[in-house]
């Protein structure tokens, strides 16, 4: 069962893999099937997009539809180059850290990821960074295109009235839930013990022992440990900031002091630099995440709960002031649907099971005792939950469901705005599609006759 789970997750995260990919009969899936200026769509991209639907038990669109979506993304990247649209590196790093943490949670451990891919987490992260950056650029382009799109209440009413009354959907129960989160942290004693172990290893290297041999013996970064801690050449910006900052201060063959990052504690040795790249190796030690101290956050939240129940402080203010989950803290602790952004969450199978079962035992207006839980990015934490409100199951109603209806109308208008942009911009880029997909209708017109396109293959 564990092997099947890992295989399924490998399929889900297949876009992380590099190198040639073979399909049935040994045909390379890394054949270029479309080109938009200097951006390419590979056959493997098309297959992975198709399999992502299959893996989620959804009916995949036609291959031509998937190809059009991929070409559209590449077109946005090409237009971003033309229009000088860029994204902040800090935003990319933040998203990258979240994705790596999510992977660790889904695979069960860092060791499972390393064994599945045969690469260290640092190398996987460096390979994923450009893809994350491209996705952020596409999002920024979409935002730029749709910034002026607005929806009026009259448009929402018109949309609602256009739905036959016997076709109105039945809405599940919905709830508003707030949280105040405090993360469990390694104790000073735990970090001091790891720091001392690394300092002892550093002394052994300085006394003449081989860094690579010690990395193989002690490093908990399994992927690089088997290579003596070697991380290969990395471009600036690929590694987490504390690691890179320490590595770039070193001279070749020099070792750092102990460096702390989100991955744990590192002893780093710089091997070489060439232009904007640097070559380093490291020994990584991590605290035992199953033994993090939850006593302090539990006591803190228990005291805070007492103050909230005594009305000495409102839950919303307490969340803003004290919650360490900044996303929900900024909204007064309210959890939001990741797709719609609404504070009303469907109380059905889409809800986190532990949250669903807990709310089923709570009454509206109540606050839970401090509860241990694991965050989406795999951190150990404790939280208070506030059951703010509940809407009973009902047939879709204009007033009750105005926000949802508004989001549907807004999404439709944004899609039309993006379609218009594509039709106007397609002549600004050079698109070629492989003859195998010549029959696909890119942007609603045959490839051979589309403005700014050519039927030539690569």
TrEMBL record:
Domain PpiC, first and last residues per copy: 172-272, 275-386
Top-level taxon in the UniProt lineage: Bacteria
Entry keyword set: Isomerase, Rotamase
GO molecular-function term, one example from the UniProt record: peptidyl-prolyl cis-trans isomerase activity
Any Pfam family the entry gives: Rotamase_3
PANTHER family the record matches: PEPTIDYL-PROLYL CIS-TRANS ISOMERASE HP_0175-RELATED, PEPTIDYLPROLYL ISOMERASE
Name listed for the protein in its UniProt record: PpiC-type peptidyl-prolyl cis-trans isomerase
Lineage of the species this protein comes from: Bacteria, Pseudomonadati, Bacteroidota, Cytophagia, Cytophagales
């Amino acid at each position: 069962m564990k092997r099947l789970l890992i295989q399924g997750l490998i399929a889900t995260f297949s876009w992380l893999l590099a190198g040639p990919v073979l399909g049935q009969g040994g045909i390379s899936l890394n054949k270029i099937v479309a080109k938009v200026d200097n951006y390419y769509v590979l056959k493997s991209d098309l297959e992975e997009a198709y399999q992502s639907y299959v893996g989620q038990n959804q009916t995949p669109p036609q291959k031509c539809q998937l190809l059009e979506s991929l070409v559209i993304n590449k077109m946005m990247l090409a237009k971003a180059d033309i229009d000088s649209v860029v994204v902040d590196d800090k935003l990319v790093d933040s998203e990258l850290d979240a994705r790596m943490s999510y992977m660790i949670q889904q695979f069960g451990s860092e060791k499972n990821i390393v064994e599945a891919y045969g690469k260290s987490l640092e190398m996987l992260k460096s390979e994923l960074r450009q893809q994350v950056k491209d996705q952020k650029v596409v999002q920024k382009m979409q935002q730029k295109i749709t910034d002026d799109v607005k929806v009026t209440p009259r448009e929402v009413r018109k949309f609602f009235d256009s739905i036959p009354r016997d076709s109105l959907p039945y809405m599940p129960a919905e709830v508003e839930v707030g949280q105040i989160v405090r993360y469990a942290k390694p104790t000073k004693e735990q970090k001091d013990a790891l720091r001392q172990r690394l300092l002892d290893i550093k002394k052994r290297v300085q006394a003449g022992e081989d860094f690579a041999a010690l990395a193989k013996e002690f490093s908990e970064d399994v992927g690089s440990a088997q290579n003596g801690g070697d991380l290969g050449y990395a471009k600036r910006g690929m590694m987490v900031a504390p690691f890179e900052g320490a590595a770039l201060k070193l001279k070749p063959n020099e070792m750092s002091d102990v460096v702390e990052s989100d991955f744990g504690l590192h002893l780093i040795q710089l091997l070489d630099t060439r232009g904007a790249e640097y070559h380093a190796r490291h020994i990584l030690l991590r605290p035992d995440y199953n033994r993090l101290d939850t006593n302090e956050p539990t006591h803190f939240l228990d005291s805070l709960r007492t103050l909230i129940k005594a009305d000495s402080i409102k839950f919303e203010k307490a969340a803003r002031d004290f919650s360490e989950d900044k996303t929900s803290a900024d909204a007064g602790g309210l959890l939001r649907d990741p797709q719609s952004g609404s504070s009303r969450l469907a109380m059905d199978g889409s809800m986190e099971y532990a949250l669903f079962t807990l709310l089923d035992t709570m009454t509206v207006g109540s606050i839970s005792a401090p509860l241990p839980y694991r965050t989406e990015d795999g951190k150990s934490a404790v939280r208070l939950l506030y059951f703010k409100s509940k809407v009973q199951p009902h047939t879709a109603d204009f007033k009750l469901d105005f926000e949802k209806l508004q989001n549907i109308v807004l999404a439709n208008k944004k899609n039309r705005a993006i379609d218009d942009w594509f039709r106007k911009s397609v002549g600004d880029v050079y698109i070629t599609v492989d003859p195998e997909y010549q029959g696909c209708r890119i942007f609603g017109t045959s490839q051979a006759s589309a403005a700014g396109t050519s039927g030539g293959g690569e």
